[in-house]
Amino acid sequence: MQKEKQLVIGVDIGMGGAIALFDQRMGKIITIDDMPTIKGEKGRRKLDGLGVFSILNNHKRQGARMIVIEDLHVMFKNGAFASFSVGHGKGFFEGVSIGLDLEVIMISPQRWKKHYGLIKVAKEGAIQVAKDLHIGADRFLTRKMDHDRADAALLAALPCDILNPLG
Predict the structure, then answer these.
(1) What is the pLDDT of residue 30?
(2) Sign of the alpha-carbon torsion through 90, 35, 111, 99
(3) Predicted local distance difference test score (pLDDT) of residue 42
(4) Phi, psi for 149 (deg, rounded to 5)
(5) What is the dihedral of CA 88, 29, 7, 26, to 10 degrees?
(6) Virtual CA dihedral for 6, 142, 47, 107, nearest 10 degrees?
(7) Which residues make Cβ contacts (< 8 Å) with residue 13, sequence separation at least 6?
């Protein structure tokens, strides 16, 4: 009898973010998708709602039952549009996840980065941590700019890494 997959989705929200799928039993990154976006008003990128739904729904059909979303907070120094974008993205992911009957875990950047030793570390540090800890991560993290993909992978792996520390 084959054991049930234990798949977790990780989301680094934001226009440059990513969505990762992690198999807890195997300790393996299954896939990482860049955040789907479309051109919005005044040429600004915005979330592609249908694209996001399609990815999350596909992961749900594969057996995902949980989603870990980076719980970013509004920083008014970043401007009104950026603040709105963060809140919109967070709410969108939470709403779609609840609609798909996924268990939603929101975690602050400070908390998950502390767990992985990434506080005050350059963004590229997440790439090396993800490659070191998880099978399959290296094939999705080939560029210096893949730090958002690495963040999503580490978020997806977080429940497993907290319960069964690796390394």
Answers:
(1) 96
(2) positive
(3) 84
(4) -65, -45
(5) -160
(6) 50
(7) 35, 69, 70, 72, 86, 89, 90, 93
The residue type at 141: L
* Strand, helix or coil for residue 40: coil
Q: Give the residue from 15, 16, 29 showing the smallest Cα distance to 154.
A: 29
DSSP 3-state of 133: helix
Paired tokens of 97: 């996840």
Distance CA 53, CA 98 (A): 12
Residue for token pair 């875990």: 105
Radius of gyration for the alpha carbons in the chain, expressed in angstroms and rounded: 15
Q: What are the residue ranges in the chain where pLDDT is below 50?
A: 1-3, 166-167
pLDDT for position 2: 47
- Could you give all domains of the chain from N- to C-terminal order, each with its CATH number? 7-161 (3.30.420.10)
Task: State pTM to two decimals.
Answer: 0.87
Count Cβ atoms within 10 A of the Cβ of residue 59 and give its class: 0-12 exposed, 13-18 middle, 19 or more buried: buried
The span from the CA of 36 to the CA of 53, in Å, is 10
Beta strand extents in 4-145 (DSSP E only): 7-12, 18-23, 28-34, 37-39, 45-47, 64-70, 103-107
Helix (H, G, I), strand (E, B) or coil at 149: helix
